[in-house]
Design goal:
36% helix, alpha/beta, seven-stranded mixed sheet, four-stranded parallel sheet, 15 helices
Length: 411
């Protein structure tokens, strides 16, 4: 008796698309199709190779668009209140940063505004920035705390981040960044503050289900490697992964430190050393480059990109969306900056917002490439070739975004 196999019927099927799977390089497959079942990719390949009789409850004609994995922004401070364009203008008019800080400007101005905002106000203040991300094909967004710097305000920031994941077609990963700056209540007592973070705030917020990872700013103007290690020890006890703002302004050995904890990523990295690169390579820690901050601060020290490439360290890109040093909400512009400022190739830039960004959030098993079994998060683009996503300035070619197999127009 011959075996009989019925033709597959899927939840959804996209035909007439060109696939950029990002599995190997762009992973280009022209004239393709992709099928979804139960929110995951069930089949993909050349449309001509679809199984005989295959059908779907919903079929989409991609119209010859390119289909890529959904974009993943793996480093953002996008939830905050207030505005610091006045400081931007003052700096360009010659007012020194020290003078701005002495009058209460800088990060503490954002802290005051964020502390003063209730949950609804904070959600509303951040909504337009998140919507801008969604409009450019973002399906996963990392959101940090760090502008509250007291327990109630840090909790409120993380709760708002969770609300975005619940109310919008968006997968949110949260990072606790209490070690972002020293709050005024702990002036001159950084060690006491780190003790409070490690022994009180982090365990409390983790128990409330608000923390997916732990981050810190390891720098001369922020927290020392020893202080950072104490916080990472607390994260390890709670079985939370770590990541780090490292080597942005000087080499503090932060990249090697986070690698010692098998951290997900080290971010910024303008002053990264060869020893830091070697440690990251050994640990599998992702390098997250943030060209928006490099541009906005008019930095001149480039991250050691060639050395990262040579070592095989995966390179992710992110907007670093924040009010002080990177008020940027466009992943497409960030990809262009990665190419023009850091000399990444367009393929590296796209991998930096998909495959490697997923790894930087610990999500590579489910996201970042188009492969059977992975979550069906992807974006359709009216472009001629994948490099157009890094090439074009000021144009958003996103036609459709798909979240776990559910299609929507760009938000």
């Amino acid at each position: 008796m011959s075996e009989h196999r019925s033709a597959p019927r899927w939840d959804a099927l996209w035909r007439n698309v060109h696939l950029a799977t990002l599995v190997d390089g762009y992973g280009e497959l022209r004239h393709g199709a992709i099928a979804v079942q139960d929110g995951r990719i069930a089949w993909l390949g050349a449309e001509a190779d679809l199984p005989a009789g295959a059908s779907a409850n919903v079929e989409h004609d991609g119209g010859g668009a390119w289909l890529t994995p959904g974009l993943i922004d793996c480093h953002s401070h996008i939830v905050y209140a207030g505005n610091r364009s006045d400081e931007f203008e003052d700096r360009l008019n010659g007012v020194p940063y020290e003078a701005i800080a002495q009058r209460g400007g800088g990060i503490l101005s954002t802290v005051r505004a964020t502390r003063a905002a209730d949950e609804d106000q904070l959600f509303a203040a951040s909504r337009a920035r998140v919507d801008a991300m969604l409009a450019e094909g973002v399906t996963t967004l990392e959101i940090k705390s760090g502008y509250g710097l007291d327990l109630a305000s840090e909790r409120r920031m993380l709760t708002v981040a969770r609300r975005f994941g619940e109310r919008l077609p968006l997968r949110v990963r949260t990072s606790f960044l209490g070690a972002h700056a020293l709050p005024p209540e702990f002036a001159g007592r950084a060690d006491d503050y780190v003790t409070t973070l490690a022994e009180q705030w982090l365990p409390t917020l983790a128990a409330e289900g608000l923390v997916d990872a732990v981050d810190a700013f390891c720098e001369k103007i922020a927290f020392s490697p020893a202080q950072t290690a104490r916080l990472f020890d607390a994260a390890r006890k709670l079985k939370l992964p770590v990541k780090l703002h490292a080597e942005q302004l000087s080499d503090q050995g932060g990249a090697a430190l986070v690698a010692d904890y098998r951290g997900l990523s080290a971010d910024h990295l303008e002053y990264l050393s060869d020893a830091g690169i070697a440690a990251m390579r050994e640990a599998g820690t992702v390098a997250v480059l943030l060209p928006g901050a490099y541009y906005f601060l008019r930095e001149t020290k480039l991250p050691p990109i060639a050395a990262l490439r040579d070592a095989g360290v995966p390179i992710a890109l992110s907007t670093d969306s924040n009010p002080g040093t990177s008020p940027l909400t466009s992943p497409l512009l960030t990809m262009n900056m990665g190419c023009t400022l850091f000399r990444l190739t367009p393929q590296e830039a796209l991998a930096g917002f998909t495959r490697h960004a997923a790894a930087a959030l610990g999500l590579a098993t489910d996201l970042g490439t188009l492969e059977v079994g992975k979550i069906a998060d992807f974006a359709l683009w009216d472009i001629d070739r994948p490099a157009d996503l890094s090439y074009t300035l000021g144009l958003n070619p996103c036609r459709q975004v798909v979240n776990a197999g559910v299609a929507r127009a760009p938000h």
